[in-house]
Each structure stands twice: as structure tokens, then as C-alpha cells.
# Entry
Amino acid sequence: MIANRNAEREYKYKQIYQQIKNQILSGIYKPQEKLPSKRQLAEQSGVSTNSIIVALDQLLAEGYIYSVERKGYFVEDITLYVADEKEVKPLPKHLKETRISSSDIISFSHMSANMDLFPYKEWLKCEQKALKTFHHELSFMSHNQGPIEVRQTLAQYISFNRGVRCEPEQIIFHSSSQALVSQLLELCGDNKSIALENPGYARYYELIQRKGWKVHTVPLDDSGFQIEAIQHKDIGLLYTTPSHQFPTGIIMPVSRRFELLNWANAKEGRYIIEDDYDSEFKYGTSNIPSLQSLDRNNRTIYTGTFSKTLFPGIRISYMVLPPELLEVYREKFDYLLPQCNTLNLYTLLYFIKDGFYQKHLRKMTHHFEAMRQKLIKELKRTFKNDINILDVPAGLHFLVKIKTTRDYEEITARAEKARIHFFNIKRFSLSEIQEPDDEHSFIIGFASLKEEEMKEAVQRLFTTIKGS
# Structure
């Protein structure tokens, strides 16, 4: 009964509020005109004085009326909104979004993750620990590069595992690797000329062009980035994925890495962006040290992400800036608020310090190696001599070349109908790449594949690319 009376009282005050507001907007009540007293309004409306008071307080808060002590309420001089009488246009149909069920989609995407294997219990344990330990810090904005405690933990981790030499102050956290690249373009903007691997990250290519930079696409050979292609060009920035080239999977040997560093050292102001996006996953041998670990002249900007080792939705990426660029960063971006979820960062701190992250990586590396071998075996069994697999024992994807009479457009359309998700090399070709007429290249990711769906997945792939 009490709830019903409260609801009725609220309904009555809203009616009075709306009625007076409409009278003001329609000109029935003029600017500076005094409203009837609360008692008069209550008698006219047949409601309690309390309902009138609540309605007037709302009108006062929104700026329709003002009060004068001991005189009452008056109408504000309101600037009327000039608009035509047409109905508000609905959102155009082409902008509407439709939720598409992914339950029956088989994904060979290189961007997917297997959430079934994520250690939720351990992550939540670390989150609870972070909330208890850093409850005071979480009530304030953290440093815009991320909390120093987390940067200290990450600096130790990447030093031990990737050979990266840095102080915690050099690390910058962000929710997006794209945003970090965008910031780097501002830091290194004097030359505005950059070299990108081809094939490579099409999203970065688009971003960099939109920022007004001149992009030089550089072909690859068996060792990766062909440095001779830019030796005589005025280029200030070079972007590379040396530990597992995207999308070909090539691992850059040490001699080529030294060539890149020599290029950077040959002219003041040159820098290399090293994207170490999935270097944690190496099969059969130990991890290869980062390019940055070989650099003695602070010309390498190291970037990494937790999207591959944890999951894409975690939104934690980072970069390690050379000291001279850190100076510029702090001058240019001192106004920024933290760019990452602080609770997630503190949780990550304990996830690493308490050993859960390393345990998770070992488990996932073992799982992915087994899945990779089974997938390669199934692809060879199904496609027989019509497939060539660039079997590089690293990362979460590999490149395949398949003989087919269909073009990329037809294969893409058939894939959509077959409810199968994979990418072709054309998507990552920054400039034209020559291929035989009867052979096409595809990027095959295996992070989200389940063992029980392996045969069906490969069969769908075969039917899409070669079947009737």
C-alpha cells in the first residue's frame, strides 16, 4: 500500500510539472510573470501542496522558473528552441545494427581467443587482492601512464622474458595498440615518412595515412623486412614485427635485425617500432630475444599487448619509449587521463607477481602447439597436394597457399554462407602483391578452435575454397 501511495504521489507531481512547463513554453505564462501560490496551484490541480512543491523544485532546477524570497515563483526569460514541426527522423536503416549469433560460426581468425581455458578463478582472486590492497589508490586517478607499481612489475617481466631494457618510467599503458601508434606519430612527426611491411597491418596503414604521413610499403624476403628497399629514402620511422611477422609468420634472423638497427643509427631522429604482439608463443625452442634487447642506442620503441595471451576484451597494451621520446611524450600528453582500466592493471600486477600469468602461458603454449600440429595434419589430409603451409613454429596463426580456381571475392561470399570466418592475404596487402592465378593465400588462426570441431572446420574451409 505504501509503495502504491508513493507511486501515485510521484505520478501527480510529474503531471503538475509537465503542465506548468507546457504553459511556460507555449506562452500562457509570460517571462517574469509570477506563478500562482503553492496553495492556489494545489487547489486548481486538486493535489496536495507537497506535490506542488516537488513539481516547482524540479522546474526551478531545470531553469524554467526562479524564486524570490517572500514573493514566490516567477517565469524565467527563456530562449525558445526554433525547430520545424516535422517529426524527429529515425536512425537511417543502414546505420542500424543487427546482433548476429556466432554460436555456429567456426573461426580461423587470428584475433580470436579461447575463453574456455582462461583461469577465471585465479584472475578474480587477483582482482580481490587488488581491491583490498589498492582501495585507496582506486579512489583517485592514477598516473596517466599507468600505476608505477604495475609498470615496475611489467618492466621486470619483459626484461626477464624478452630482454627488454627499460625503467618503469619508460612504460606507457593504453587500452589500444592503435592509439599508441597514433601517439607515436605525434612524437616522431618531424619527418612524417614511415616504412611498413607488406603484407602487414592494414589498420595501421589506414591510420597512418589518415594522419597525413607518407607510407613506404616494403616487400619481404625469407628473412622479413628488406632493408635495402629504403636505404636511400628519407624515412624517419620504421614499423616491424620481427619475432613473428604479421601475417606471414617469418621470424627475423639476428643479421637482419642488426641491419635494421644500423639503418636507425645512420641518421639522427630515426626510430624503429617493434611490435611484439604474440612473441610469448614459441614452439619447440626458447623465445627469441626482442629487437630492443640488441639496441644500444635507444632507437627502438618496443610495443606489446595482453590481447593474445589473455583475451582481446582485456584491452591492455603498452609501449616502452626511449628516454628522449619520453621527454617529448610528457610534454605533449601531460593533459591525458589514464588510458587503461586501473583495476585491471592492478589485477594484472598480481596475476604476474603471483605466478598465475606464467602458469597460464605454459598451459596455453602446450595447448596451442598441440592444436597447431593437429590442424596442420588435418589441412594436409584434406587439401592434399593443393596446399602449401608456411609452418613457422610460433604465434597463433600461420599462412597457407591453396590452389583454387575461385577469386577472393567469391571465396569471401561462400565463407559467409558457410558460417566460417577467416582472412585472405588481400586484406593485408598494403600495395599489390603478385600471386599465381591459380593460387591464393590465407591466414589461418587456431586460438579459438576446439579439438572436437577440427575436422568440420577444415571441411568447411575446403568446401568454401575448393568444393562444389
